[in-house]
Write a structure and sequence with these properties.
Blueprint (H helix, E strand, L loop, with lengths): L17 E8 L3 H12 L4 E4 L8 H4 L20 H6 L9 H14 L6 E2 L4 E7 L4 E6 L4 E9 L21 E4 L14 E5 L3 H10 L5 E6 L6 E2 L7 H9 L1 H9 L18 H14 L3 H4 L9 H18 L3 H7 L13 E2 L2 H4 L5 E5 L5 E5 L2 E4 L2 E4 L2 E4 L8 H4 L2 E3 L6 H7 L15 E3 L13 H21 L5 E3 L1 H15 L3 H4 L6 E3 L5 E4 L6 H13 L5 E3 L1
Parallel strand pairs: 1-2, 1-6, 2-3, 4-17, 6-18, 7-16, 8-9, 8-16, 9-12, 10-11
Antiparallel strand pairs: 4-5, 5-6, 13-14, 14-15, 19-22, 20-21
Helix pairs in contact: 1-15, 15-18
The structure holds ligand NA7.
Length: about 550
């Protein structure tokens, strides 16, 4: 099918844009399911993907050691029993190639590939008030018209490289982790720098420390990293997974973070002499339960939070023998769980190697980058490779790269630069029939095991589109009041949490001046969020402008 189909009798030089029901932007975890669901609903749909393959972050993040932090069997699609039954996993925390293969399998199993235009970036989407349609253009020079547009562009897809003085002058190889070349980077025997010590940096550092001649780690903020236990998945694990689908899929939908865990006790209810054993059991599980499931009131009770923080600091100190190193690697100025908790596997041990050194940027900041390396205030580091594990323009970065103009030509980027706002993280007032997943002010923006939360968002979007179509309406968008009510609710439940109090994390959008602003993570929990979304559907989208 050609993109620009010609109307009979028209001048071939002026093609009529193809008219579709919906356009899906992105073919990662969200985009793949969104495409599947809309096709199932009988819509004509095209998906566009900037990469030459599917997977989204699992396509791009090929850096050494890249693996998911969500433990088996949670990080997979939940929409198809058949898919679940035939899925094979080899590790408790699958690595990037395994997840990329899985997404490819899903795309082929459901025959989605032919609906995706690869290596094509959507550059603009402009709403036509007169026809109630979106005119979408791509960097391949195509123009399409669709009634609905869904941006499944991911919340952590636009890399952030700090504007260090002299950045471009480096003569060696430099690379952001999220744009790691498919053919890899030869690190053997090289002098390598890693800037950034959060979830990504930790995975890179622990993986390459033994491969390089010298590794210099540039750390700005230390993180509370928790050991990952990553046993191989056995046949009996897979049998259990398949037999548990019905129960797990029910529970996970209403879980706190997209994981099925036992309900944790409230801190005050657990006798003091049982707390250490409780914590140790959670610690030993080797996954993120210590963050999401240590105590029910962990995010709201300072005492509970202090207790867990101390427990984690003590465990870290047991691992880091050198007190001077421990002082640099163990956070002291913020509480555990108030930023994304990375999992690690040999991270602290990497620093006891002779070929690894740590530069604490709080004491010795980067001054500039030059042809031969990185100059800090205290000296110069000669380098062959610089790896930027410096994170992403979180929440809005990938949507803001597209010139989106809603009703009356209003620019979404401009609107968001004045006030970041969404309704349940999926629509924005003034942008009829435009939807998004993993955008700010939903659990999927930050605090959720992605496939679980994104599945729910894709379903809500498909249901909203189905509602418009079944009622013979032209468009749907939240009213200004509905949006304000959601933003008020978000702030009321999210800001008072422990995470809300920490200003230093990607859960807060960074302004152009580097200052931290709106908290993009919705912290009211998945159940409250899901109920709010379900109520909108059940109530016939009361509070939405239905035209
Ligand atoms: P993150 O979590 O945003 O971490 C970025 C890291 O880069 C972090 O250590 C930052 O230090 C560091 N950074 C950022 N800018 C600078 C500058 N200018 N100088 C020095 N260091 C800097 O990104 P990740 O890729 O690790 O993880 C993102 C998510 O992907 C993760 O949470 C999972 O959900 C998957 P800082 O802490 O800002 O001081």
């Amino acid at each position: 099918m050609s993109v620009n189909q010609l109307e009979p009798g028209k001048d071939p030089g002026t093609p009529t844009p193809q008219m579709l029901d919906a356009i899906v932007v992105g073919a990662g975890i969200g985009g793949v399911y969104q495409l599947y669901r809309l096709l199932q609903d009988g819509l004509s749909v095209r998906a566009f993907e900037a990469a030459d393959g599917v997977g989204g972050v699992w396509f791009w993040n090929r850096y050494p050691g890249a693996r998911v932090d969500s433990h088996f069997p949670h990080y997979q699609f939940w929409f198809s029993r058949e898919l679940w039954d035939e899925s094979d996993w080899t590790e408790t925390f699958p690595a990037q190639p395994e997840i990329e293969r899985y997404v490819n399998h899903v795309v082929d199993k459901f025959d989605l590939r032919r609906h995706i235009s690869f290596s094509t970036r959507v550059t603009s989407a402009v709403f036509d008030d007169a026809t109630g349609t979106w005119r979408v253009t791509t960097d391949a020079g195509e123009t399409l018209v669709a009634r609905f547009v869904v941006f499944n562009t991911g919340g952590l897809s636009t890399p952030k490289i700090p504007p260090f003085k002299g950045h471009d002058s480096f003569a060696g190889v430099s690379c952001h982790t999220s744009h790691w070349p498919k053919e890899g980077v030869d690190l053997a025997g090289k002098r390598v720098a890693v800037i950034g010590t959060a979830a990504t940096g930790i995975q890179v550092i622990q993986t390459i420390a033994s491969q390089v001649a010298h590794l210099t780690v540039f750390q700005r903020t230390p993180n509370y990293a928790v050991p990952m236990k990553n046993p191989k998945i056995t046949e009996s694990d897979l049998t259990w997974m398949r037999e548990s689908f019905d129960e797990l899929s029910k529970k996970v939908r209403w879980s706190r973070g997209g994981f099925v865990f036992e309900d944790p006790p409230y801190f005050r209810d657990l006798p003091a002499d049982q707390r250490d054993a409780h914590m140790q059991a959670i610690w030993d599980s080797g996954n993120l339960s210590i963050w999401g499931n240590s105590f029910a009131d962990f995010q709201s009770n300072q005492q509970a939070n202090d207790y867990v923080t101390q427990f984690v600091r003590d465990r870290m100190r047991e691992r880091i023998k050198d007190p001077a190193l421990a002082a640099k690697l163990i956070p002291t100025d913020y509480s555990f769980g108030t930023r994304r908790v990375p999992l690690e596997n040999g991270y602290f041990e990497a620093f006891s190697r002779d070929n690894v050194s740590l530069v604490d940027l709080r004491e010795d900041p980067i001054d500039s980058i030059n042809a031969s390396g990185i100059r800090t205030r205290a000296g110069h580091h000669e380098l062959d490779v610089i790896i930027y594990a410096t994170g992403f323009d979180s929440g809005v970065g990938s949507i803001n790269r597209i010139d989106i103009r809603g009703a009356a030509g209003v620019s979404l980027k401009q609107l968001w630069s004045e006030e970041l706002c969404t309704t349940v993280g999926m629509q924005v007032h003034g942008f009829p029939n435009l939807f998004m997943t993993m955008a700010p002010f939903a659990p999927a923006a930050a605090i959720c095991n992605v496939p679980v939360c994104v599945d729910q968002q894709c379903d809500w979007i498909a249901d909203a589109i189905g509602f418009v179509r079944s009622k013979g309406l032209r468009s749907i968008q939240p009213s200004a009041q509905t949006q304000q009510a959601w933003m008020d609710h978000h702030r009321a439940v999210s800001e008072p949490t422990m995470i809300g109090r920490n200003m230093n994390s990607w859960y807060r959008r960074e302004g152009p001046d580097g200052s931290k602003r709106e908290l993009i993570a919705y912290l009211g929990g998945i159940p409250a969020y899901r109920r709010a979304c379900d109520d909108m559907i059940a109530g016939g989208f009361k509070g939405f402008e239905l035209v």
